[in-house]
Specification:
alpha/beta; 19 helices; eight-stranded mixed beta sheet; 592 residues; two-stranded antiparallel ribbon; elongated; Rossmann fold
Length: 592
């Protein structure tokens, strides 16, 4: 324990040695004293009422004296109440600081490390893993551990010091006769609005999102009452903050959704009242925002047995950004995050994706044998649109800028899921089309993701899994026959996903018999292909019953042993000859 510049600095040793239960006992003792003072005041008041009545100067003096005594006892009771409340609040805050230190200790022990009383993290001497990719991942995990431990301990020390300072002020004010929490300056939850405001949300430089761990530690450092106050008074602090538990984000985002709906309807009415022809674009955008917010509201209102959580709502961009979870993200053993690509919009696609993921979640839970699976539809970026291919450079699907710029948001989201939970989850990312390129850039930044499945990927920003933050064997690639985005997108988006060293090619194409080959010109599809199990083109990967859908399900359930790998025949069918898309008569019409 040191004093710097007049402020008390508590060490990890001090926090570990603290005993919040002693403060709880003191708070209860003060409450008992307060009650006794109240009883005494009531007794004095009763005695005054029961005393014989008389008149004159003496009677007036006695009445005044009784009034002074009763008022004094009232002030004393109120002052004791303030002190007791402050002590009880300090106990809760101190317990939260201790829990942060315990979390840091648990994380260190899980990785074979330990933390001394000065808060220094000591990593063990790591044995050689015999593979550069494994060594690189081990180094990244150690970097993540340092970031999380540092955030937990820094916030624990800060919260403990703030608590000590606030308690001192409260007790001094109480001793001077303060009779309200406001007068004592230590009311329950007051710190949420003052000294314990949340950390900034700008992503940290480098591959580790340290601010996510700082946000998680900030949330853990507060009492339950402070958290409720933060959600009620400042939902913008909680709703969009990666690292905060999903249930708390949902509660805050419901408030933000209602605000966004009010603003969107107002703008839509104003735009429609305007008769100016040049205002058409503004009217279209206003209507799209209303439709998007209504889609979010509709999905949240579904009552099909699946819990929905709103993890982000942001109407400030070109389109409304939203992140909606199906299932308990805070407790499910497996959490999947889906990222869409070109032309994805909340208003037009969120309901459809939710319909698909209800089915796929049910299948994944069956494969997971009793373990729960949550699936998140991550629409946390303004996806490129078809018309922007000719109208924009930066937002063009042929430009990787949008993917690079939004990779940090996806990486922070995945890291935040881990930071906000009590136990780690098996995390999977499903990424389609341009979303796969975005997920590729995110994979350079976070090691919180255990498995990635990219389908219809136009290209990835690395040529070897070892150059990403992914573990060896975790990158799964699916490319359907006739998917020209998958076949030719690498020309503008880097390495073809199927050629990334360390990637695993999975089946999307089921032949009726091995060795039949594929002559796309001379044979109709039904002669050599199992139509029900084969995905065709760029938008058929999630269709029920296909090998691609089954592969995505088993990856999400943590069962890579059940994957259907791409065989030699399929590789020949999907990598040689003209695209099957050139013979439309042989392909059934499919709804994207």
């Amino acid at each position: 324990m040191t004093v710097a510049g007049g402020s008390l600095t508590l060490s990890v040793r001090d926090i570990r040695a603290s005993r919040p239960q002693s403060l709880v006992a003191v708070s209860r003792g003060l409450e008992d004293r307060r009650r006794r003072v109240v009883v005494l005041a009531e007794l004095v008041l009763w005695r005054r009422a029961a005393a014989p009545r008389w008149s004159g100067a003496a009677s007036s003096a006695a009445a005044d004296r009784y009034a002074v005594v009763i008022a004094g006892l009232g002030r004393l009771a109120a002052s004791i109440a303030v002190a007791g409340q402050a002590v009880g609040h300090a106990a809760g805050r101190l317990e939260a600081a201790i829990d942060l230190v315990r979390r840091a200790d648990r994380r260190a022990v899980d990785e074979g490390a330990w933390i001394d009383d000065d808060g220094r993290l000591f990593l063990p001497v790591r044995a050689s893993l015999g593979h550069p990719a494994l060594e690189a991942r081990r180094a990244r995990l150690d970097e993540l551990l340092r970031a999380e431990v540092h955030a937990c301990l820094a916030q624990a020390r800060r919260a403990a010091a703030e608590t000590d300072d606030e308690l001192l002020r409260a007790l001094l004010s109480s001793a001077r006769g303060a009779t309200s929490a406001a007068g004592a300056g230590a009311g329950v939850g007051a710190s949420v609005l003052g000294s314990l405001a949340p950390p900034p949300t700008a992503s940290a430089a480098g591959g580790v999102s340290a601010q996510v761990f700082a946000s998680a530690a900030w949330w853990r450092s507060m009492t339950d009452e402070e958290r409720r106050r933060a959600i009620r008074d400042h939902p913008e602090w909680v709703g969009p903050r990666d690292g905060v538990p999903a249930t708390a984000r949902h509660e805050a985002n419901l408030v933000l959704l209602a605000r966004a709906e009010e603003v969107a309807w107002t703008k839509a009415r104003e735009a429609r009242r305007s008769g100016w022809v040049g205002n058409a674009a503004e009217r279209t955008r206003a209507d799209e925002h209303v439709a998007a917010l209504q889609a979010v509201r509709d999905v949240l209102a579904r009552r099909d047995g699946g819990e929905r959580l709103l993890l982000l709502i942001d109407p400030r961009g070109l389109d409304v950004k939203a992140v909606v979870a199906l299932g308990d993200v805070d407790r499910a053993e497996h959490v999947v995050t889906f990222v869409g690509g070109l032309s994805t919009m909340v208003g037009t696609d969120l309901r459809r994706y939710d319909d698909i993921f209800v089915r796929m979640r049910s299948e994944a839970r069956s494969v997971a044998a009793g373990q729960d699976v949550a699936i998140v539809t991550w629409m946390g970026y303004d996806a490129p649109q078809v018309h922007e291919i000719v109208s924009s450079i930066d937002r063009n699907v042929l430009n990787a800028k949008l993917a690079r710029d939004n990779a940090g948001a996806l990486a922070d989201f995945a890291t935040g899921i881990e930071a906000g939970r009590d136990r780690p989850a098996h995390q999977t990312v499903w990424a389609h089309s341009y979303g796969a390129t975005l997920a590729g850039f995110a994979s350079l930044r976070t090691s919180a993701v255990d498995d990635v499945a990219v389908f219809g990927a136009p290209g990835l920003p690395f040529s070897d899994v070892s150059r990403s933050a992914l573990k060896p064997g975790s990158l799964n690639v699916l490319g359907a026959v006739g998917d020209d985005v998958f076949n030719y997108g690498w020309m503008v988006h880097g390495t073809p996903a199927a050629e990334v060293a360390g990637a695993t090619r999975l089946s999307t194409f089921a032949l009726k018999k091995a060795g039949s080959g594929c002559n796309h010109w001379l044979h109709s599809r039904s002669e050599f292909v199992d139509v029900g199990r084969t995905s065709a083109g760029h938008s058929d990967y999630l269709r029920a019953g296909t090998d691609s859908e089954r592969n995505l399900v088993v990856i999400a359930a943590g069962r890579p042993d059940l994957r259907v790998l791409q065989g030699a025949d399929e590789r020949a069918c999907t990598t040689t000859g003209p695209s099957l898309g050139t013979n439309p008569l042989s392909w059934p019409r499919l709804v994207p």
